[in-house]
From TrEMBL, chain A:
Name of the protein this chain belongs to: Autophagy protein 5
Single GO biological process annotation from the record: cellular response to nitrogen starvation
Places the protein is found: Preautophagosomal structure membrane
Keyword Cell membrane: no
Similarity section: Belongs to the ATG5 family.
Entry GO terms, CC: Atg12-Atg5-Atg16 complex; autophagosome; mitochondria-associated endoplasmic reticulum membrane contact site; phagophore; phagophore assembly site membrane
TrEMBL record, chain B:
Complex formation: Forms a conjugate with ATG5.
Sequence ranges of Polar residues compositional bias: 21-45
Taxon lineage: Eukaryota, Fungi, Dikarya, Basidiomycota, Wallemiomycotina
Topology of this chain in the membrane: Peripheral membrane protein
Role: Ubiquitin-like protein involved in cytoplasm to vacuole transport (Cvt), autophagy vesicles formation, mitophagy, and nucleophagy. Conjugation with ATG5 through a ubiquitin-like conjugating system involving also ATG7 as an E1-like activating enzyme and ATG10 as an E2-like conjugating enzyme, is essential for its function. The ATG12-ATG5 conjugate functions as an E3-like enzyme which is required for lipidation of ATG8 and ATG8 association to the vesicle membranes.
Species of provenance: Wallemia ichthyophaga (strain EXF-994 / CBS 113033)
Location within or outside the cell: Preautophagosomal structure membrane
Protein's recorded name: Ubiquitin-like protein ATG12
A molecular function GO annotation: Atg8-family ligase activity
Protein transport as UniProt keyword: yes
Positions of the UniProt region annotated as Disordered: 1-45
Amino acid sequence: MSSDLNYFRSLNWNSTVSLELSVRKDGLSVLDTVYFTAYRNSYPFFIYQQLKYAFLQSNHSSNQLNSINDDDIWFEVVDLPESNTTANNIPDKLKLHWNIGLSYDYYTFNYNPLKNHAPPLKLILHLSNSADSAAAHLQSTKLSFMGSLKESQLIYWGTVKRITQLKTNQTEQLWHSIQSNDIDEYFKIADKLLPLPLSIKEKEMDDNETPKPRSIPLKFILPDQIVIQDILPPKLTLQQALSTSLPLLFPSDSSKYPQLAYPVLHGTAIPLEADISWLASTMASPDGFLRFCIILN
Amino acid sequence: MSGGEPPTLPPLPTSEALFSPKNSPNLDTIGSPQPRSIASTQNQRSAVDDIADIEAAYNEHGVIGASHRALEAYRRKEGRKVVVRFKAIGAAPIMKQNFYKISDSNKFSTVIQFLRKECGLSNSNCPVFCYVNSAFAPSPDDSIGNLYKCYGTDGHVIVNYSTSVAWG
């Protein structure tokens, strides 16, 4: 059972998505088109950093690169159906605080569904001229990660003590593990934060060893980026959780219409019998949240 | 289409007396978020209308029609008002009034902007850090509706703000 846990955790951490990135400067010429494989858990800004050091540097003169302000860059999602891009041609910006895997699932399953085939997500990397220049990207990615980690802690345990009790170097280690996609380093710290599946706990742990989580933090991402957040008790199946949070799309058995959508997590349609606390221990985002893309049938 | 009134929240505290120090909720005793009770999902009128509409769409247009009608129900701006109560921490400037009603379809970034304006920090570089329930900083992207549903206490969302990092 414990090895199952590690197996699914490593699947989650080691799986990747493919991206097709057109690199543009000043919104004009395409400097390059790059195919890139990214870990699902990585954040878009990390992808930019890797590209910059590994690729752009060798292909472009240092002059061109020196003029880039890292905090001006942004990603545009292209290749969406007409109806989706908002009427007045506002480019669809990639959310920098979503893991790339989540964005990939959201855009691919909703707008580009091809059976048994995972096309690269097409993005434009703009090297300057952001419409609204945001704060320092790296810093805000970190703040947003730590913010939602604390939020999920509050929901799991009713307190954020487990984080505030971490030493500064442990917090830094945790953030470093996210940046380097280092699963072992991550779980050295995260094992103190995230719940174990109930089944393991009952068998292997002393009763007083670790408290059971009170609730599970869930976010459901519907088409048009409608986000429904919920806090549910741990002993539920995914079916029960969905019909509680999204009763119109996942009606009860007595309903006169069938289930209208299905949940996707890490690129996989998840069976509805799955137990949400098991999913939280094995397949939650590194910040502790279970984020499902809800795809309409 | 549904003609039902949007669901109403419990009556909002309107008089300032409710927020006087004597009656003000004690932050230390505000509980952690509880899981939502499963039983109380759907008894509101608009939900009943939605279900009827979805059934009709299903009979007429099949699953695709029904799923789009259901999505529309989730997209619809409810227009419910939520009370946001601000509480300054440390040296943060104090606001003249510390609670405001805001429509629940707004993003948290609206609250941050509003707070900066009220504190006279719109044009300054002074950072403002906002926390919910003295615990975590919500993402600017989070909707007020979600924050209220998950962390609302006695009909309001408590936002602590500070000009320096407060809770790590």
